[in-house]
Design goal:
The complex is a heterodimer. By secondary structure, chain A is α+β, with helices and mostly antiparallel strands. Chain A has helices at residues 2-5, 23-31, 33-41, 49-71, 76-90, 101-105, 108-121, 152-166, 204-208, 214-227, 258-281, 300-303, 310-317; strands at 20-21, 44-46, 128-129, 139-146, 175-186, 189-198, 233-240, 248-255, 318-320. The longest helix of chain A has 24 residues, at 258-281. The chains are: A alpha+beta, B mainly alpha. Chains A and B meet through helix 5, helix 7, strand 4 and helix 10 of A and helix 2 of B.
Chain lengths: 333, 73
Amino acid sequence: MDAQANVQSPFLQGTNVQFAWDSTCLGLIKQCPRLYQYTIIDGWSPKDESVHLRFGSEYHQAIQEYDIERANGIDHEDAIRSTIRALLIRTADWQVDVNTKAGNYKNRSTLLQLCVDYFDYFKDDPAETFILENGRPAVELSFKFEMDWGPRASFINDLHESLEEHGKIYGQPYLLCGHLDRVVSFNDSLFVLDHKTTTSTPGPYFFNQFEPNNQMTLYTLAGQIVIDSPIKGVIIEAAQILLDKPNRFIRGFTYRTQDQLDEWVGDLHYTLQLAEHYAEMGYWPQNDTACDKFGGCKFREICSKSPRVRETFLKADFVKLEEKDRWNPLSPR
Amino acid sequence: MTDLDELMSIDPLELSTQNIDEIIAYQRKNRALREAGVKVKKGDTGTPKAKLDLAALGLIPKKVAGSTIKRRI
């Protein structure tokens, strides 16, 4: 918790102008500025969101540990044993209300089952973990790279300071940050591999959402920079959590060309310029055409209320996280 | 209480290798039953009775911030 408290703010000091962005923040501002405001600026969080976050985080960490063991030559059974032991220790204090929908699907018991099922299913995985130049397996790679432009506010402020104090002009550039679950070699091509959990069927409708897709384009771009090799795209590895049937694992592919990556970076200029404008105005407008997307926005009920009473409903249905607990692209995983 | 409940109620730090193998075997058996169309007990959180303070035991690793890649695009 102390380490989290010391993490740098992703905002320019004393402003709501964000300079460090990840796919989550970008996805929110692109989907709806008001959704971005409620989540990132104000820190409102649904009361059961912690269940999803904890489940996803533990699932990712267990797979990461298993993949590292296997890449280091440890055999399947020994890798499972050590990974499950660590998982049980980490989740010893995790208590979930299984009477809620979220808790019924996502608790310590379903997590354990999902992990064992996953390890057995991918025992002889045709996708091989890429080994980095330093000899380490490319698993859970954090990335943070600078763009060649930054918020206007930063450059204007620093211009004054720099001219007076340093005699040179330098501002805070935008940073793109995130974490790649794994980079793999598959059929002689390199891909980023991203784990997703879902309770719905991962059919064509599920995989179509990733093409085009902000997160997958950023991950392809980041993979190319981190690995310094061409990355063809992302393998989305969907785990469907089922209670009465065996858990299912399905992989889907999404490809990106260099032209598509360049276009995404070009569009990013406009997105970030808009984000800075909203921050300067202190107003993040609703995109009322996005409320029903992705199974319905979590703030839909709030936005459907009169503006005067929204705060009251927010306080009743959501928790306002302390600043140190809010989503921060600069937080280490 | 099922065999799994009993195993999961053991302090995780006290679990033997055999206990871990039994827990894994239990998950595999559950999967086989589900594949065979047999409904298995659900909704068990597997929360142990023993309360652990992971931070005090030094089992929560300190997070370290990554370095910035000085490559501009």
